[in-house]
Amino acid sequence: MSFQNPVFIPGPTNMPEAVRQACYMPTIDHRSPTFGKILHPCLDGVRKVLKSDSAKIFIFPSTGTGGWETALSNSLNSGDKVLAARNGMFSHRWIDMCQRHGLNVTVVETPWGQGLPADKYEAILTADTNHEIKVVLATHNETATGVKSDIAAVRRALDAAGHPALLFVDGVSSIASMDFRFDEWGVDIAVTGSQKGFMLPAGLAILGFSDKAVATSRTATLPRTFFDIADMQKGYDANAFPYTPPVGLMNGLKLSLDMLLDEGLENVIARHHRIAEGVRIAVAAWGLELCAASPDLYSDTVSAIRTPEGFNATDIVTHAANTYDVAFGVGLGEVAGKVFRIGHLGSLTDVMMLSGLATAEMCMVDLGLDIKLGSGVAAAQEYYRTNPATAIKIAA
Amino acid sequence: MSFQNPVFIPGPTNMPEAVRQACYMPTIDHRSPTFGKILHPCLDGVRKVLKSDSAKIFIFPSTGTGGWETALSNSLNSGDKVLAARNGMFSHRWIDMCQRHGLNVTVVETPWGQGLPADKYEAILTADTNHEIKVVLATHNETATGVKSDIAAVRRALDAAGHPALLFVDGVSSIASMDFRFDEWGVDIAVTGSQKGFMLPAGLAILGFSDKAVATSRTATLPRTFFDIADMQKGYDANAFPYTPPVGLMNGLKLSLDMLLDEGLENVIARHHRIAEGVRIAVAAWGLELCAASPDLYSDTVSAIRTPEGFNATDIVTHAANTYDVAFGVGLGEVAGKVFRIGHLGSLTDVMMLSGLATAEMCMVDLGLDIKLGSGVAAAQEYYRTNPATAIKIAA
Amino acid sequence: MSFQNPVFIPGPTNMPEAVRQACYMPTIDHRSPTFGKILHPCLDGVRKVLKSDSAKIFIFPSTGTGGWETALSNSLNSGDKVLAARNGMFSHRWIDMCQRHGLNVTVVETPWGQGLPADKYEAILTADTNHEIKVVLATHNETATGVKSDIAAVRRALDAAGHPALLFVDGVSSIASMDFRFDEWGVDIAVTGSQKGFMLPAGLAILGFSDKAVATSRTATLPRTFFDIADMQKGYDANAFPYTPPVGLMNGLKLSLDMLLDEGLENVIARHHRIAEGVRIAVAAWGLELCAASPDLYSDTVSAIRTPEGFNATDIVTHAANTYDVAFGVGLGEVAGKVFRIGHLGSLTDVMMLSGLATAEMCMVDLGLDIKLGSGVAAAQEYYRTNPATAIKIAA
Amino acid sequence: MSFQNPVFIPGPTNMPEAVRQACYMPTIDHRSPTFGKILHPCLDGVRKVLKSDSAKIFIFPSTGTGGWETALSNSLNSGDKVLAARNGMFSHRWIDMCQRHGLNVTVVETPWGQGLPADKYEAILTADTNHEIKVVLATHNETATGVKSDIAAVRRALDAAGHPALLFVDGVSSIASMDFRFDEWGVDIAVTGSQKGFMLPAGLAILGFSDKAVATSRTATLPRTFFDIADMQKGYDANAFPYTPPVGLMNGLKLSLDMLLDEGLENVIARHHRIAEGVRIAVAAWGLELCAASPDLYSDTVSAIRTPEGFNATDIVTHAANTYDVAFGVGLGEVAGKVFRIGHLGSLTDVMMLSGLATAEMCMVDLGLDIKLGSGVAAAQEYYRTNPATAIKIAA
Asked: Which residues form the Aminotransferase class V domain (chains A, B, C, D) (predicted)?
């Protein structure tokens, strides 16, 4: 644990010093008014980051997976129908969770590397004339494949079908990094976590609920206590949690939100896009291809890079860790061994990113791939220097 | 948030500087072998603290409440029968959770201030000749009333009845502070959290499962994913979690375990007892009584102190916060307004405790109670100085 | 090093969490403009704390002792005459430094426990018709005896004698804690350090120079480079130091100054006075006496407490450290073994102070002194609760 | 102050997390035995780093400049003769300090970019038949020019001349990074600071004295108090300082020494050499030259890189700070505007260094220099990957 080099995994991200210090807080009485001064700014700030005026925000001491479970258990009944597409490991896991909770999932199998098929959603929803489908799941950014999907198109599919199903969006690896519009897209539940765009340690599930979703929760019968939003809301109304809150992490979230909103969400999005573009240009310079099938699908938070046939992409990740003390992400599930992933979200500069690209180059050459040292770096350098950041730096 | 005075709440506790620093850790790759070097010592250390040779340990990014839910959802089926006693707010909440998860709870109503009625448990279990009761719940230390119960007696009740029900123990505010014997007492699931005896921030649910409990989990049908121990075990076997683990908190837990085990569990227990005795002697000097009905029930982690009729005990807590920037605990539920609580667990010295007692005295006098300033302090001083600590200091 | 209990030494003080975090800063380029944004607010803030409109402020990576040497070496020539009174260990050491630097010191021997004899200063200065005395030294607060001297009276002595000597004041243990008026008292050089009222670690010598002192420095010939104020000023003018500056400590000083000035200097002074009064009332309740001869001399930052004849006061300090892990100060020089000292400056609340008093009581009883446990605590409690703080808390 | 990118200045260096945390220590009583447990390991560890069996080690709350003054003022008398060579800004400053302290310096003017002229030293010493020269100054590593000098050759010059002068070595930017041999080279006083190879914040002057230097100090008459080694030694003998010590910084030094000695000094040296070689190979790939005149002079802690005629090298440093938030060093004195400097010492990996090289390339291209993006990076990558580190990582 030398902590010298940045990490290049798709979360947890590198953390700003000030955010880390805010998390590192001595004990306060979580039942005192002081906690309310941390809690409410967090709720308000998350709402702004979701671009919502009215979403109810819930924060649980948990992770994104707990957030998925919160969404399901507060809105559904055993046996309810859910529509979802599987185009990567994280959409797969949410589907799996549905099935384990006794839900009836219509799965649209989608090639890994493709986005969510809004057209197929529309067809299925249109055919569901009895409106048996209660919820549509949508993974905004497939962290396994580096594929961004078009949530606005999913909303259009629902609207075109005149279907009342709720729209649940997994924004774990997109929210606070990429464009996300809770109100405009008609999202009913958005799920994210602390350890991605919010640049915090893992430990918080963060959700936004539409009024419709909150209303639905009142009659949902899947068992829940820890993840119950009614208990949580009752706690918030008294400046509290229904159990001991993760005070330090929320103190960090409060600061992180201040930083993101001070920078401006559009600047945050532009910053992530700029860093990501440099990575993609480097990948092209290496003669490699992304897992994402087309540019409209490219994620600005993570790139999954295909390596040549017969080469085990996971070796790059292992070699980078062992030889250079640098962390990249392995391929998961269907693309295990076929891709390695570079995370490029959170607290990350062009300068830091160049060191990650340089490391990837050394690893690939070390492992016998036909890559020219410095080629990707040079391409990214040219992009970064000619596309100056208006806000490349996260103030701390 | 001046952080100058210690807190005297029954958790989260004051944190040792070194533990806080260990939590405050830069990002590492949680899929790298480095994480295994944090994870496995945590599992091994918790097992030792539970005084178990073979318990399977599970740690979730959650709280004690999530730990309760883990226990229930991994062992029970909807409609299953559970036996529990209600003698305070926390036993009440676990019963409430059972009911919300569709369990059929036989509740033994017990006066707040009393311990768990092992005799009544035995009668009910003996009468349950069909062994329909699947689980017996036992709150080892009622944080609301400062009452410790006799878990060995509950085990004897089960044994005397020849009953195969599983024994689940809430040790949230006892484990790592008071005597706890997983193996000897035949505990099947023990539940605790990070923010009490482990002296960490809230954010971890920590559980031990007996082999029998693990076996039962294989057929339990209450829905669960986030809290599923099979997924978690599969993760551990690969040095990982099934989702992003709370790395910093676990790094803190690793250090906290080292500190506790280096000090020696018996010394840890003696240290808590010594601090608690000083508090109780001060309470007696004030002419006040504890909520706990008799000395065998006195908790060594929290004292709930009854104030005179007609006096709102909560005023002490509010006044202490507003006037002296000191945190005590309010009374909850049935004893709201009737007691205030002094937490005396975790990283706390006699010297720190004396400042808490001195503050309580000032508050009581300020609010018109007939207390002599310095009386409780003097009594505690005499106890502390004539009962020297062999291990009063937590090494940092 | 458990860091659990507060320290009660006359500096370094307990540190506010936020100040400590500000010191704990990653490396920046100290030659970049960023450093100027730390440096200049420090200079401006110190000037305000000195209550000066025009003093030139100098900060060296050193200690108060280095500050003394800075004062002497930037203003004097070998053989120059200096007037000083010796009434404690710290005034003694400054005199000793003068002698080692070849200065000719007229020493007014003054009983330890007395303040500076302004009348004798006046007589000597009046007799010095040739104005051979170049500098008058005045220790504002004798940390060894807990004696505060009347600097305004020393200024009046100079003025009454019509003497042009420079007035140098050691304010190490008074500035930022007790009333100090650079301009009003006509101070020419004030010396302090980081580890007292500024609540920082040791490591900074902090000085204010009057225009007259700066002018004198131009011709002073005592050798100096590290402590040369002309080099330092040239550095400041370029946002720099003449060598590598202690960036983190200065970042902490910047925050400390913000906190002190936000609280208001009069509130800071009142806060220290209130805490000190509680200590003195406890001492009286113990039946003991202060080293300081009369109330007008009582220091609000440190109390030196005389113990009975035949008792070694240092034993209290040793016993407190060994038995209770609490730090008090020993007696120094003439009063070694005769007094022990309680520091009550910096980040310290009434609640913390009560734990110090309770500890002192236990120690004294443990060591056989005829002290009633709780007696001093009760007296201080009564004072603190009936003299509520308007600003007892340091915001963090 | 985003603290995201590493710094590439020749000190203060990037700091290991654990060292930073060790510095960030709550207040302890510096007069307690606890301080001795920090102090003595520091003294012992520094001695080992100096490769000395018997040097007396002194640590002052100061900087390298204060260390120079300590060396001079503890060994010389006004008017004493000193021999020194001026081959850069730091050797110049030490000479200047000598002159300001009334010493008579024979200065051997040496081109900036050249090492110390041992042959000229020998000639001068041989001619000094009366042994009027009391001290020979030698700057081991000229931080301004990136030039390492041959201290063993200086020692041979002294020996060849049969001259008894003391040998004082400025090792501020070499000790703990480059090969340094106090005993073997017959060094009498070695001077360094905390913020270079020790990877700490600035704030400590660290010196080693030979027995001969200690003996000389007893009769040296230059005035000194703060920097007096006899006072300091007396303090050490009582586990103390003669004034308030910088406890946190020394706690950090203790850890830093443990890390360096655990790694092994030869590994530390090899690690610095490897990082430096990568930089030099990149510089060659850019078609630029170092200020250091020949390979035997190349410093392993800092490289001063000459830019083409007519180009202001300082622009690179300003542009890097403003555009990329990266810190390099400017040219100083004679080489101001002609060189920019890359610091490559302390806590720095190959991966971090590559980001510095990539940034330098972007800056040079942005400013119109004829540099190929990626060219230096590629050269360094090839070097780093084919010269694997046996110990590239600093354990934390």
From this structure: 30-287
